[in-house]
Each structure stands twice: as C-alpha cells, then as structure tokens.
Amino acid sequence: MTVSQESAPTDPSVPTGPTAPGPCRRSVVAAVGAVGIAAALTACGSGDDGGSQPVDSATAAGGDALARTSDIPEGGGKIFADQGVVVTQPKKGEFKAFTATCTHQGCKVTKVEGGTIDCPCHGSKFSIEDGSVKNPPATQPLAAKQIKVSGDSITLA
Q: Which residues contact 109 (CB under 8 A, 6 or more apart)?
C-alpha cells in the first residue's frame, strides 16, 4: 500500500524548520528584562506622597516645574544633575541658576555648602550669588542659566 503525501511548493529563499527567522534567545531575554525594569520604575513612581517629585530633563526643559521654591534652601542651593543646572537662593526670594559643570576641567559639581557651589575634582568653589570663582584652580565663573520663578514653581526658561 502506498501513501501519497502532497507537498506545497517550497521557496528556497524562505528558511523552514529550525532555521526559520525569529527572535534569538538574547533578544527575548533583553526584552523581558526591559519590560521588568519599566514595570518596576512605573511602580516606584506611581505613588503621590505630596512631596516634590524628580523631573527628567526633557520634562523640565519643556516648562514643567524643575523645583518648588521651598526646595531651594535660603543661603544655599540644589543641584539638578540630570538637567546640568544648580539653582541657588542667595537671599530670601532671590533665585539664581548656573551650569553644574566646573569650568576648570568639566567635572560636575556635587554640593552646595557654605555659600559656595563645590567641585569635587580639584577643589574649585563658586559663589551661589553670581557663579564667580571663590576658590581656584578654576579661573572662569560658572555660566548663568535662565530660570523662571512663577509663584512657588521654578522652571528652566
């Protein structure tokens, strides 16, 4: 007894069987990992504790609040590393902004303390009032950045 088997015409340029195109194991693992990270980040940021929330650089540049005025201590300041900006309040109600990049060798400043914006790389310090050099080796002041204060909201201009 003979059994006939019909076969569909095959196109030699289309692989079949185990060599058929599809996601490779590395792609599947990376995609699963990315979905997991996105889910975790979404879960972490979904609560509203009434406090100030971090703002990414795209959002801040678009005019949404960078900070509340109450977030910036009088006689001090706060560094927004993602936006590359330092916002200071030298006197009550007076807000200034400067680049967060040291003019000496391009390091990022890391703290605002004692009336200065401080670079950890070589010890340069800059005034919270005008960005001028208070302690070398930097010789150039921090560049001013434009901000807008409206009510209790500070945005990048």
A: 79, 86, 100, 101, 102, 117, 118, 119, 120, 126, 142
Burial of residue 121 (CB within 10 Å: 0-12, 13-18, 19+) is middle
Tokens found for residue 149: 């204060």
- Rounding to the nearest 10 degrees, give the CA dihedral for residues 56, 58, 63, 69: 20
DSSP letter, residue 108: B
pLDDT tens-digit readout, 23-71: 555 554 555 455 544 444 444 443 333 333 333 333 334 467 899 999 9
Q: CA-to-CA distance for 117 and 87, rounded, in angstroms?
A: 10
Distance CA 30, CA 22 (A): 14
Q: Identify whether the C-beta of residue 99 lies closer than 8 Å to the C-beta of residue 145.
A: yes
